[in-house]
Amino acid sequence: MPATLIDGKAIAAEVNAATAAEVAELAARGIQPGLAVVLIGDDPASQVYVNTKVRKCAELGIHSVRRVLSADATMAEVLAVVAELNADPAVHGILVQSPPPPQIDEAAIIAAIDPNKDVDCFHPVNVGKLLIGEPGGFAPCTPRGVLVLLEHCGVDPAGKHVVVVGRSNIVGKPLVALFLQKAKGANATVTCVHSATVDLAEHTRRADILVAAIGKPEYIRGDMIKPGAVVIDVGINRVRDESAPRGYRLVGDVHFEEASRVASLLTPVPGGVGPMTIAMLMRNTLQAARRNL
């Protein structure tokens, strides 16, 4: 029996509808959540991501600020913009689009953002709060989106074996921390595997819930998946395809056709985890604004 697809677009739409309603409630009390996005340079992919976030803010009633700096901007110039946004009471969330140009120290920029406005959850203060399960921080957008997808599908990780493929600071590590929490929607037994793991497939085949976030196109094949497992594909990769209108197609880190014959639930790429990332960014911005009440 083929896997049931998890419709990330539909679930994100539900989340966004709830966010829009709560934003309207805050606005009635004189507070409009505000998100500032800083873009350094003219990378086309980054421009698309930034524009998508700005449009979503407009849809949900969130005030947005778009700050664009030249590709040769200095650290001092970027830090000055961050300081200005830190001090702006109309801005509740700040993110600097990644990756920045090579002359920019991304870690230093992240450290300069007010932790209370760090809606991406990259600041060491918020990462620490995430790890120890302390409230008051933010959950990273993509990892939190994964847990919300599972919740909407009626999948409770409690007591299940979760295998996370990938150890990035953006997805892999924080996702492990979220699944490990002693909290609703978590309480899982977690294994993290990565590029240096020996016999990686032996681990993935034991997963009740398998999350692929390794950044390698179609890396997880059907024989690496436990029959009936829930498979969440975080990856998004371009592969050449001369038959496609643009000469390429988008694929995940999971071989979709093979996985669909083995898994019970499966996220497509695109249309799975991706829409949830922006939906969670909007939720984090709302959360930051609520702290002003």
Brief digest:
The protein has 293 residues and is of the alpha/beta class. 39% of the residues lie in helices and 16% in strands.
Structure description:
The protein has a six-stranded parallel sheet. Strand 2 (34-40), helix 2 (44-60) and strand 3 (63-69) form a beta-alpha-beta unit. It has helices at residues 8-28, 44-60, 75-86, 106-112, 124-132, 141-152, 172-180, 200-204, 256-260, 274-290; strands at 4-5, 34-40, 63-69, 93-96, 161-165, 189-193, 209-212, 230-233, 237-240, 248-251, 265-266. Helix 1 (8-28) runs parallel beside helix 10 (274-290), helix 6 packs across helix 7 (172-180) and helix 6 (141-152) crosses helix 10 (274-290). By secondary structure, it is of the alpha/beta class. The protein starts with a strand and ends with a helix. The chain contains ten helices and eleven strands. It is globular, with a radius of gyration of 19 Å.
